[in-house]
Amino acid sequence: MKIKKAVIPAAGLGTRVLPASKAMPKEMLPIVDKPAIQYIVEEAVRSGIEDILIITSRGKTTVEDHFDRSPELEERLLRAGKMQVYHEMVAISELANIQYVRQKETKGLGHAVLCAKSFAAGEPFAVLYGDDVILSDTPACGELCAAYEKYGLGVAGIKPVATEQLYKYCSLAVEPLADRIFKVSDMVEKPKPEEVFSNYAILGRVVLPSDIFDILTDLPPGAGGEIQLTDAMKILAKRDGMVGVEFSGERYDMGNKLGILKAIVQVGLKHPEVGNEFAEYLKSIKI
Questions:
Q1: Alpha-carbon span 130 to 243, nearest angstrom
Q2: Element (H, E) at 146
Q3: How far is the C-alpha of 106 from the C-alpha of 247, rounded, in Å?
Q4: What separation in angstroms does the CA of 202 have from each of 42, 66, 100, 146, 158?
Q5: Is 227:221 a contact under the CB 8 Å cutoff?
Q6: How far apart are CA 182 and CA 168, in angstroms?
Q7: DSSP assignment of 197-215, as one string?
Q8: Bridge-based pairing state of the strands 132-135 and 250-253
Q9: Per-run averaged pLDDT (10 residues), the chain, 287 residues
């Protein structure tokens, strides 16, 4: 079954990047000249996604404004003869059919995904975590969607994580199926050293069947007192099995200061307008 729907949870407060996120949603922090969430939406569209639900919260109306038309701005660009920029601005509003729902209480990623039950309407759907920008010529979400279509099981986007960093993520029990594709039979959120299955962790992308909602509805709070999506996927993996795809590209954590800086450098160096000058500038810096 083709995956046509995607959910982007973007309700978090962004406390790790304060004070920048005090008045601006972290999803709107720019990577050179585009906000982080636009990269995520564009990845979904390149993966064949047609309908997107963005989970927001209080104070995130700028996210909605960004993907809406802006008649005053567009008129000014037309008057100034800036046709290329005008068409770029209009194209943002036409990327996909984007809807929004508010997560009135931030009770964890699992709770955020549960807010998408009506939107999914019984269909499988992709989840692109709002903190995670993945830069690649091949969209990571598309790689996961292809695996779902082949295997008919929930799919997690995975990468190896340094042992000392695993406690921030999760740890997966995996067995190789094909090149960069694994069977996932178990997982643990924020593992203690004695709980580690492997160095593979879920990083920012999953594709899930609609029955994940039944699991989430009855799921008790987990790590941090929140409804953890990993706990629901653990039940799914042990019951039906899941697939892990070691996706292409580099993942950048936009809820982390270093992640933001790395993403800016990566995009800046390849930017057609400023890339060469930026590279020369970086070479000139003396530390």
A1: 22
A2: helix 140-151
A3: 28
A4: 21, 29, 25, 17, 4
A5: yes
A6: 22
A7: --SEEEEEEEEE-TTHHHH
A8: antiparallel
A9: 93 84 88 96 97 90 93 94 95 94 87 95 95 94 96 96 90 94 93 93 95 93 86 94 95 92 96 95 91
